[in-house]
Design a protein that fits this description.
Alpha-Beta Plaits, about 15% strand, alpha+beta, three-stranded antiparallel sheet
């Protein structure tokens, strides 16, 4: 039987000219992704390899490469769009989806559900350091 933990390399776009609006600086993408993905349930290990590469180990029963890619793109990360990366990712996504179906895991997580888990763990409330009087005065 195949292992239920997967280790994949995620490569970010390093070019400075894309048609989309840039929301995350190109030199900070890999570091920002490590901090974002560390909060997600199912991620077992993260390694920062370079400015454009991270190595992620995750549990296939909880996450898949497709879910991770959708999550990163929804937040504004630009993933590598080269032909070899697209072919490699498509092959990994296909094999993982087949394995998940064979295990009986049909439901995929939605990006919103992944972020809600991290949001629920954070402290909430008023973060304004001013006193109540000054807050309502201005």
């Amino acid at each position: 039987m195949e292992s239920l933990t997967k280790q994949r390399e995620i490569i970010f776009d390093s070019s400075a000219s894309t048609g989309r609006a840039q929301r995350i600086p190109y030199d900070d993408q890999a570091k920002s992704a490590v901090f974002l993905l560390a909060e997600i349930k199912g991620v077992l290990d993260l390694k920062y390899l370079s400015e454009t590469q991270i190595l992620i180990t995750y549990d296939i029963r909880i996450l898949s490469l497709d879910i991770i890619h959708q999550t990163l793109e929804a937040v504004g990360f630009q993933l590598d769009g080269s032909l070899i990366s697209k072919i490699k990712n498509a092959l990994c996504i296909y094999t993982e989806s087949t394995l998940r179906e064979n295990l009986g895991i049909i439901k995929n997580k939605v990006t919103r559900d992944i972020f809600m888990h991290g949001y629920q763990k954070r402290l909430h409330g008023c973060r304004d350091l001013r006193s109540t009087y000054w807050r309502y005065y201005l």
